Every structure is written in C-alpha cells, then in structure tokens.
Amino acid sequence: MTTAAQAALRRVLAVFDLLIDAVDEDSLVPALLPLLLRALPGDSIAWTARPGPAGPLTLPAGLVDRDRLAAFARGAGQDPLVRHTSAGPGTPVRRSDLQSRREFKALAVYGEVYRPLGAEHQLAMSFPAGRPTGKDRRVCVCVNRASGDFPDADVETAAMLRGRLGHALGRLARPARALPPSAPAVLGALTRREAAVLGLLADGLSNDQIAHRLAISPRTVDKHLEHAYPKLHVKGRVEAANAWLAASGAG
C-alpha cells in the first residue's frame, strides 16, 4: 500500500472510530463534518437532514445564508444531483456523472448558489437515518470543490462511508427503553444512552454484549457507566444494576 493510500485509510478509520463511539447526533455531526472533509477532500461540506432543520449544517459554518437557501429551494427541482439524493438511490455520485459543465452552468441555481459558494465540482450521497420523529428521515452529504473534479477513489471512499453513516444515524435515532411514570427523578438525570446501557446491564448482559446490542464499542459502554454511577449515587456495576431495577420498578 502506498503512503497516500495509507493516509487515506487513516482518514476513513477516523470517521469509523467517531461513529462507533457516538452517543447522540447533536454532538456527533459537528465533530463528524471536519473528518468527512478530510476523508473526502474538498473546500466545503453540507449536511442536510430531511425532515429536519430548515437549513443544512455546513463547514465552514454559515456557508448558506437565508437568501441562498431560498434560491436553492426555488431551483432544486431542476437539479439532477438534488433529485438523485432526495428521491433517487442516493449512492455516491459526482455532478459530472449526471450532467455536463454546460448543463450545470445553465441551471438557475448555479448562478444564485453554487458559483458564489465556489461549488464548481460536487460529490454527493444520501442515506436513511432512522425515524426519530416517527417519519423516515434521509441525510444528504455534499462535498464541494472550486477546482479539480473528484477522482474515482473519492467516490469509492464515499461508498465505504455511506453504509456506516446510515447505520450510526439509525442507531442514534432508536428510542431507549422507556421508564415508567413512577420512576424516581434520579433516573431522569440519565441520558437516553445511559438509560439504555443500564437497562441491558440490569438484564445481565456483559459490556461486550451491551456493545453488540447497541452497536457501540465496549469502551463507550464503560464511558456511559462511568457517567451514570454518580447520577445513581453508586460506585460499581452491581450497585448500578440494582439501583436501576429498584428505581425503574423492574426488580
């Protein structure tokens, strides 16, 4: 393996490590965008969840203002790359795979949005991201470059990342075990993932088994337990499991 290939692999593995250890989407995405922009080198990146917030999360931050967002909404229906990621298969694709430079520059959205952003070349993909609000959700990731189209290697890297991204977002969107209305307030101090880990711990699962069930790493299970112990006023696994059983009414 060449030095360049080794560096590219390290960038991909950094994304994988972050996804494995992620405990919630709100903290994941801001940390994820710079790693994605290293794995898929570009000048900027946009992360758009639908349904979701009105505008995308971008790096650099604030890349798309209200006027450009409105212009994008007006012209998105004529954009084949948007159609591919919003209603199509969402597999990683370059804009150049879908239309010529002349066709791209003829789009109204090119002059109003893409050209001012320096998005002369784009690589985009989308993936299902769970049902956090009861509706199927899709996330689109688009990387932009001012010069130099994306090589085949970047498309292949995006394909590797796509499945992991969808799996991680789906995992984080799954609800944790619900607490009964009578549960003491102390349990309300637990995060959703801490509660999920404690529930499985109380069921007798080992850290490795909990990690497998929740699709996280054993190291992350340890972190959740370390954060949960002081909230439950306990010092170890057995006490934590007993406290959970007593407080949740499952004991």
How is this structure best described in words?
With 251 residues, the chain is of the alpha+beta class. It has 2 domains: 3-169, Beta-Lactamase; 185-248, Arc Repressor Mutant, subunit A, CATH 1.10.10. The protein has 13 helices and 5 strands. It has helices at residues 3-21, 25-39, 66-75, 80-86, 95-98, 101-106, 108-117, 152-173, 185-188, 192-202, 207-214, 218-232, 237-248, and strands at 44-50, 57-59, 93-94, 121-128, 138-145. It has a 5-stranded antiparallel beta sheet, with helices on both faces. A hairpin with a 6-residue loop joins strand 1 and strand 2. Helix 10 (192-202) crosses helix 12 and helix 12 (218-232) crosses helix 13. The longest helix is centred in the middle third of the chain and has 22 residues, at 152-173. The protein is elongated, with a radius of gyration of 21 Å.
Which class of secondary structure composition applies to the elements?
A: alpha+beta
Number of domain modules: 2
Helix percentage range: 55-70%
The CATH topology of the largest domain is given as Beta-Lactamase
- The CATH architecture assignment of the largest domain turns out to be 2-Layer Sandwich
Going by CATH, the homologous superfamily of the largest domain would be Transcription factor LuxR-like, autoinducer-binding domain
Quote the distance from N terminus to C terminus: 55 Å
Query: What is the mean predicted local confidence, pLDDT?
Result: 88
